[in-house]
What we know:
Elements: H1 5-25, H2 28-33, H3 41-50, H4 57-69, H5 76-85
Amino acid sequence: MKIDRSLSQVASTEYTRARSLARSEDKSVSKERGERVEISEGSRLLVEARAPEQADLEKVERIRAALADGSFSVDPEKIADRMLEEEW
């Protein structure tokens, strides 16, 4: 799957603008004046999509334990297959 760079740039710009709007809503000056900032549904979805993914903490701990006791193994063929599946 190829990603159109212009779409990525638009998403990045919208994400930055949505975050700025959300931050400006927190300012006490805006609250005192009764101003309200609303983020469009599209902008909200972009912010959610760009949010860092939550790590599976249980999986991380299993991998750490396996690394510590030397039982973690890597299958180079599986890694190579996955790399070849990716489209750039």
